[in-house]
Structures
1.
Amino acid sequence: MDESLVEAFEPVARDLRAAGLDCQLADDASGSDPRLGATAELIVSGVKVGLLTLGAAILDTDSRTLYLAAQTQRLVQANLGIGGRVIEWPPCVPSHSHPMMATRGRRTPLWTCPLDGSISVAIGSHP
C-alpha cells in the first residue's frame, strides 16, 4: 500500500475513531486503473464503504489529507448507517444537525461548520 496515502489518512482515521467508528485501509483488489494514483479499500466498522484514491498530482500532505477527508466523509455518509439513519460524520456542534465539511485552513486542513465558518477544528483533532 502506498505510504503517502496511509500517512495522509491517519488524521482522518483519528477522527473516525473519536466518533466510535473503527477504520482500516486494505489493499485495493479491484484492479483499479494505475493512473488514478494510490488506492486503498476503506473499511469502517467492518463495512467496506468504498475505494479511496489519491491522485499523483496531489503533492503536499495537507492537501492529501483534505482530499482523503472529503472522500471518506462521502463514503461514510453514503454507505454506512445505524438503524437506517445516515451517519452525520463528523458531527458539528451539538445544536447543529448537520456534519462538518472538509476545508482548507491557513495552516492545516479543517473540519468546518457549513453554516458558520468560525466553527472549525483541525482534521485529526475532532472531539
Note: The mean pLDDT is 89.
2.
Amino acid sequence: MGMDEELIPYLTEAILDHDPPDHSRLRKLVSRAFTVRRITEMRPRVEETCKRLLAALPDHAENGAVDLIEHFAYPMPITVICDLVGVPESERSLWLGWSHGLMSAEPVAMRPRCARWSGTSGR
C-alpha cells in the first residue's frame, strides 16, 4: 500500500487545525462513523486492543520503566482508527509510520518520512 504524493497535503491538515466553518464541515463528515450503535459495536475490539497493549507493557520496560506514550497512548487510537476504516493487519505498520510522520513536531521532516513509507520522493 503506497501513498500518492499528491495526497500527502490532504493528510497533513488535521481537522483540529481548522476553524469553523471548515472544522464544522469536516467534523460532520467524520461524526457519521461515530454513531452510538457503531461505538457500541466497536467496544469489545477496543477493550481487547487495550488489554493486549497493557499486557505487552512489561516487554517494553527498561530498568523498570516503560514509555506509556510510545507503547500504549500512541498505538491505541491508531489501532482503533485502523479498525474503524478497515485497514488490514498486514498494512497497519505503514499506517503507524505515517501517523508518526503526520504527528511529528517537525513539520518539514514529515513529508520525507511519509514519502519514505509510501515510496514517493517527498518533495
Note: The two ends are 19 Å apart (CA to CA).
